[in-house]
């Protein structure tokens, strides 16, 4: 009866999609954007920078991350859980639908590549989830659990195994690429991206030989370039500072980056600068300077003049940024959250000067993994006995040289740790680096990190010191309370995952 | 032949115009004129029959007289003799289903803005609460308990044959509330009433079908009950012109007592000391400070309401008409809110031949809503309560003031917010029907009817740039919505009626119906305008965004009903309906809904002839099955949403599919007893029912790790059929009328309703939580689980405050926080001691339990009308007993965990070493568990409200008739005069949050219902 047949008129019906190669290629686009929004904009920096002690704040809600007062009731933390699992859900939908639904005219390699991309992105989401929450339920097909609230959590080792299988699939099925001057063509992840991510996962598992080998393969493949690097794998057209300009999105250093758009629609763009920027920079009412670079981080720079990364990461009083809104001079009294400086990284300025966007929704990419970090993974794996120490030191010093610093002939693991902190500061990564050093190191480090403010009533300013003691429980974040209610199995012992 | 003349009056001596006088046994007849006079020429031995609607027909033999004056007596069973049922009508005495009729007096003498408000408390088994006091806002109507756990439990309205959903969220069509609900985070309660277009003065009768044997004829849409509204038609031959007007002042009833400036300053000082913050210099000596800004006084104000309406009605033998026009303008008591309506109506009926009758009932209206955000933490009311009294409303230069604090906790100036953010909704609506009735034979009638409901909604929301102190809004933003809704329905009905041997009365009805609903809309936005003066799309600098939506649903139905009654004693009715719906996949489209009911008029049995003590005894009962299909279209399949990405257009999975989705069904058994005593002056109806609803259509989001929860890119949970729920209840109606022949008369009606709701089954061990945004975080407020009523309040139980070290010794650890004297992450003296419900030695999320029940033990309404000579007095009370309220406002106002936030004065009595017997916990920092959802915030929501007192005076007709005025009545009315309650918030009538069945009785800064003083005038020519 046609009268009673009412298909949707304002959206596609899944059953009638994926008929053409174009549709299949577009199937993964959304996985690089919207589901990540709440995590990246609202939580990732709270964990990566506030909890780690790279930043501080007075805002009582976000301060809960600074002083280890996060509970399962915390609305911001809940967004991490929801957002990352939204990534998983969307990725699973593509992974489980595409192989059967793709039309007969779509070549198999197109389908395999798309599924590979989706599995890469699913692995990336699980990698965050396991690092933030520890044991979690592994969901490979959401449809199986749609009516089943009680799902056991799986041990961390199984989550890692699941991640590795996904990444291996992506290594085997995604297209191989060479990152060239056509940046748009670099945007999606490749087989090499998966290899690089796999190297990082092995590093977390302390499987240094595998981490080293995979990192070496990525380096030797020539797929990626260090933007501004001076070695054979360098791209002299860029620099560390240039990495974070919207115009350079998907430069050859980018391994996996979230691909925000300029529509200005909420959650389609990047909201990070809304929180990082000083008031007035964005051209909108956002620019909340919600985080200040901690005194501890400021003191961690060897030399704020010589290290080019300081200027690209932190806004010092009086600094001048010629490209920012056509020329921007930092206020002499800039004082984010009592730190006497502000944040520069990911602050890209107004919509007019950056190709669009609107408040809380800007077009600049967010890096999840870039070649600079891969070189440090390579170095760390090597120094841990995973491979040639000389090669590792070579990789390490590529990063030092690009930063304008002197080489270190015989770097220690501690040097690598410090280098990672500065290289990746405000890329929402440091917390995981601290925690993976093990609880002895992490608790000592976190409890003694200076999270206080400058007292500007004296000259020179003195420090109102603040530290917060961390305990074992603080090294993983709690599951959202509502989820425990919905799924009490989260309180029970993890159950091994049944791999196919 | 003789000429007879005379005057016809009522018992008060008022002339009755338009009384039909017939010479018995002939077609010779006349009508009385304006002054009740008549002249008729009849045979000498004739008998005159005087009939007039609403009065007892009287016969008088002429017996040679030439002047006969007649006094007609008002009929005790006046208008409700014939009751409108679905697709027909039936004598009340024959009725075997449960139907409540709203008494017409309420309709005529007590003006109300909206029809749903008018029904409140007047029919047993029908619970009506206003979800918000905002003019034009939606109410929630619950017929016999809560029948569904999915979005809408609102009944179906049939207005002159046109079905109109009571669901303000439009779940089953566009899925969007008509109102632009993007006012702020958490959205708040923004539902506007779908019935606002209807002028209550146009209504002739309201019949509420309550049990399934009555509603089954509406099949798939009858599960929540059906309200049949019939508008007026012309009756008298003589034309009547009426003018009704009133002017009303609406006034807020009460205020919260929050801290004044000196108390606030004291609190800030003491917090600063505890938190180790620098003291605020201006607060150094709190006792010198004045009262500061009283934000509540600023946002609440007296508001004016006025109404004018004019109607013409009349008719002749073959044509009748009713024409009306009305205008209503209502300001809201919260600054910036308001509602107005213009409506016209034309109801016409005509006999084209003695075999063909045609007619139309048409109305057009325009309503305008000025909406403000309420029932949300950042709503106007909330802001006025939490805002700092140290901040002024205006700067000396007249601009809006704001805080000048170097702090992240700043509250917007609610006056500025209310006055500068404009959110207007204009609804244009045209609905009604046109029909033709053909007599195909002596007993067979064919009726065809076409109805339509065409709406156009225009919504404009503009946020200008602003700067209030430290709070600035750099960008202006405009959001514009244009939406069209088209609904049509076509019915074909055959009715056969015949009486055999004067004893067997048979009515058979067969019908077919097709209906379609279509909607389409465009939302567009722009921003960054050069100035705030001309916000027009395309002129702003921001990227223009557009979003288009469209869709349609269809329903195709066949139905039939047979009524057989024997000798006015026994009646049996059976009906069946088949509905085919576009909501379900092939194979599940059709649903079948049968019913059967019977009644026995015990009083008509011959053996009862000598029994006079109790009259009109009727026993009746019925069983029926109805359905519900109020879900979005294509919920059974999976859709893709289109999104923009840096890689080009992308596609997100919008929802989980469920091919097996089928009808929600509800079966109901109803037993009733009617009887009268005291010469039929006291009428009683007692009904009991058992209603079983099952296979609820429910969007089941079991866990956020499956769907992604509230995250962008989350996949909407699938619609499923699950569970079973039972509502058992009793409805009692008592009605008393004095004999109408004296100067004094009294008419009283008492309704009493009780239901017990129990969830019998959900999916497996599933518990369903009612979630809402409070203070920027999502909180589970209610729990629904098997064996309990739906939507019980859920949280921790409080044992008291840790006052001494002895209290702490051996106490269970609270939320993993060590007992330690620190501001963060610890439990210490002065903190709330929560109860270890499961006895495992620690207090954690497992210790949540049921802490309150929003369902009342019973609700009641008590209507009294007194008439003494020309005075009429009406007193109406209604209330609810035994229901709990979750007072989320109190939770914020006693949190004591944030600086720069106003609180109740009781917070100053916080625990400290010097104040160990304090009533409130210690001042803690933001993350304190002291504010966890607990029974601290549960209050008794019982109330008795004097809802309406009206005193009217009708001028004697001899005084007014010289001016050509037939009737002139002046009245004064006070609505919401007084409420007896223990509830500490504004108003215990909380309603249901955005009509969500899981969020009943949650007060999150609800717009309180004002007290209304009305002065009105009714004139009839």
CATH architecture of the largest domain in chain A: Alpha Horseshoe
Rg of Cα set of chain A: 22 Å
First-residue to last-residue Cα separation of chain B: 34 Å
CATH class of the largest domain in chain A: Mainly Alpha
Largest protein interface, residues of each chain = A-B, 104 and 90 residues
Question: Total strand count of chain B, please?
Answer: 53
pLDDT averaged residue by residue of chain B? 85
The oligomerization state is: heterodimer
- Average pLDDT number of chain A: 94
Which structural category do the helix and sheet elements of chain B fall into? mainly beta
Proportion of strand residues of chain A: 5-15%
Task: Compute the number of structural domains of chain A.
Answer: 3
Please tell me about this protein's structure.
The complex is a heterodimer of chains A (500) and B (1021). Chain A is built from 18 helices and 13 strands. With 500 residues, chain A is mostly helical. Chain A folds into 3 domains: 20-174 and 437-452 and 471-493, Alpha Horseshoe (Serine Threonine Protein Phosphatase 5, Tetratricopeptide repeat); 203-259 and 365-423, Serine Threonine Protein Phosphatase 5, Tetratricopeptide repeat; 272-363, no CATH class. In chain A, the strands form 6 sheets. Chain A has a two-stranded antiparallel sheet. A two-stranded parallel ribbon of chain A has the order 3-4. A two-stranded antiparallel ribbon of chain A has the order 5-11. In chain A, strand 8 and strand 9 form a beta hairpin. In chain A, helix 2 packs across helix 3, helix 8 packs across helix 13 (371-386) and helix 13 runs antiparallel to helix 15. The longest helix of chain A is centred in the N-terminal third of the chain and has 27 residues, at 75-101. Chain B is mainly β and 1021 residues long. Chain B folds into 3 domains: 2-75, Carboxypeptidase-like, regulatory domain (Immunoglobulin-like, Sandwich); 81-250 and 301-766 and 944-953 and 961-1020, TonB-dependent receptor, beta-barrel domain (Maltoporin, Chain A), CATH 2.40.170; 261-299 and 779-852 and 884-940, no CATH class. Chain B is 7% helix and 47% strand. Chain B is built from 11 helices and 53 strands. Chain B has a 22-stranded antiparallel barrel. The radius of gyration of chain B is 31 Å and the shape is globular. The two termini of chain B are 34 Å apart. Mean pLDDT of chain B is 85; it is low at 183-187. Classes of the chains: A mainly alpha (500), B mainly beta (1021). At the A-B interface, strand 1, helix 2, helix 3, helix 4 and helix 6 of A face strand 27, strand 28, strand 32, strand 33 and helix 8 of B.
